[in-house]
Amino acid sequence: MPEPKTMRAAVIDRLGDASELHLAEAPLPLRISDELLVRVVAAGVNPIDAKTRAGRGTAAAIESFPTVLGLDFAGIVEQVPYAAHPLQPGDAVYGMGRYPRGGGSYAEYISVSSMSVLPKPASLSFAEAAATPVAALTAWGMVVDLAKAHQGQRMLVHAGAGGVGHFAVQFARFFGAHVTATGSASNAEFLRGLGAHETIDYRSERFEERVRDIDVVIDLIGNVHADTGTRSLDVLRPGGLLVNAPTGSWPSLAADAAARGIRATGYNISPDARTLAVISRLIEQGQVRPHVDRVLPLAEAAEAHRLQETGHVRGKLVLRVDDELN
User: Fold this and answer.
1) What is the DSSP letter of 292?
2) How does pLDDT run along the chain (326 residues), one tens digit per residue?
3) 122 vs 285: CA distance, rounded Å
4) What are phi and psi of 88, to 5 degrees?
5) Checking DSSP bridges between strand 67-68 and strand 35-45, what pairing results, if any?
6) Which of 41, 47, 280, 292 has its CA 20 to 30 A from that of 138?
């Protein structure tokens, strides 16, 4: 059968609040070069999506409207670069695009570099697979590549029950670190199930009164709430490391940390299938597991963004794009 020329997508016609997201017909993406055309079954929802929609995040790189948001996805290969490609039409895959450099994943199809796509782990549903790439790759970059998680290391993970946080806790524990995670009291059991040795209820306790001489802080909040970033400097040992991820959450990070003799850096994700392949093996071995808070239909993308912006999502939110295969 011939390929369709248009597809269903959740788009925005301008920057603004969540109500700007709506369903529309969009042109089918054109596969070029090393790209795969993938029929999207499920798409992950990330904080950067909501920030971009609102005019922050990567919004400056949007070239035209309407535009389709979304980074990570799970789906079925439709077209490949060449006949003997390792991935073939019909294969179940997952990965991460480069929106807004290309079309986003809140759509029935995405064209994406084959260097950013892998076979979907058999143990994961499409929704679980779509919840994995962005959060897991970010957590890996912070905990493993930068912090060098290892036996005996003392690590504090802020917002440990969130999308990146719940992977960060699992990776840190897997590599032997002693993990303390902040979260709400309602997430304490969830955090312990992920591998946290200690949990701190940020609503009733000051983490700086519970821990000290920490080697590494994985800061997924910054100073957007209760000066979490600045207060984190108080719990690090001299020469300790603070790794911060939220875009624009702490503009004075470098200067504040240097004044205290603390090493500090931000982090930006790379859609690297080689690293995702390592994470896939940990998933298949049962060492790591994504948690999906809720799956919403593509038509409810605006509601997914509203939920994301509350800051109280456990694990990840996912959009169901293909009703037949989910």
Assistant:
1) E
2) 566 799 999 999 999 999 999 999 999 999 999 999 999 999 999 999 999 999 999 999 999 999 999 999 999 999 999 999 999 999 999 999 999 999 999 999 999 999 999 999 999 999 999 999 999 999 999 999 999 999 999 999 999 999 999 999 999 999 999 999 999 999 999 999 999 999 999 999 999 999 999 999 999 999 988 899 999 999 999 999 999 998 778 889 999 999 999 999 999 998 899 999 999 999 999 999 999 999 999 999 999 999 999 989 999 999 999 986 65
3) 11
4) -125, 155
5) unpaired
6) 41
